[in-house]
Amino acid sequence: MRNKKIIYHWSGRGVSAPLAAALHLGLVEPTPAGTAARKIARSLVGGIPFGRGAGKEKGTLIFLGTGKSGEKVYLLPRGKEGKLLLTLIQETARLLGEDPDTYYFIDCELCTSRQPASRKGKELFRRIEEMVLAVKEDARACAALPGP
């Protein structure tokens, strides 16, 4: 049984990764269809970790909790150029004898992409919900696999 370490990463500005991690852990519920995006954003920003963005935490791996399938959920505010930071985490895990395949890096800004301003809010939440559902399904499938 291999449990994933899911790392939702983003530049540290905005709410994409904190919202994804909060949805993953069940800290917030998916939004009902038709809810105004601005109302959703206001109600969630104060209630999720780093909902207002990350300041000096950039570059810090932050453990948020354990999902229902045993997967560990982390946030990583990586700054503008995060490729080096992600490589550093993977190689450090390898040096410590961990299987790098258990680390699942989710670029929340890439997965949700920018939308035109008129549909941006609702579309962002819908894409984050879809992304989180896919990640949770993959974690569930990995947890069911027999370990080495």
- Strand order, biggest sheet? 2-3-1-4
Give the tally of β-strands: 4
* Count of alpha and pi helical runs: 5
How far the N terminus sits from the C terminus, by CA atoms, comes to 8 Å
Q: Give the tally of structural domains.
A: 1
Main sheet?
Answer: 4 strands, mixed
Q: Helicity level, as a percent range?
A: 40-55%
Classification by helices and strands: alpha/beta
- Backbone shape: globular
Spatial extent as radius of gyration: 15 Å
Uncertain segments are none
**H/E series:** EHHEEHEHH
Percentage of β-strand residues: 5-15%
How would you summarize the topology of this molecule?
Blueprint: E1 5-10, H1 16-25, H2 37-45, E2 62-66, E3 72-77, H3 83-95, E4 103-107, H4 108-112, H5 120-144
Parallel strand pairs: 1-3, 1-4
Antiparallel strand pairs: 2-3
Helix pairs in contact: 1-5
Question: Summarize this, please?
Answer:
The chain is of the alpha/beta class. It has five helices and four strands.
Characterise the protein shown here:
The chain has 148 residues and is α/β, with parallel strands linked by helices. It contains five helices and four strands. The protein has one domain (5-144). The chain has helices at residues 16-25, 37-45, 83-95, 108-112, 120-144, and strands at residues 5-10, 62-66, 72-77, 103-107. Helix 1 packs across helix 5. The mean pLDDT is 76.
Overview features:
148 residues; alpha/beta; 4 strands; globular
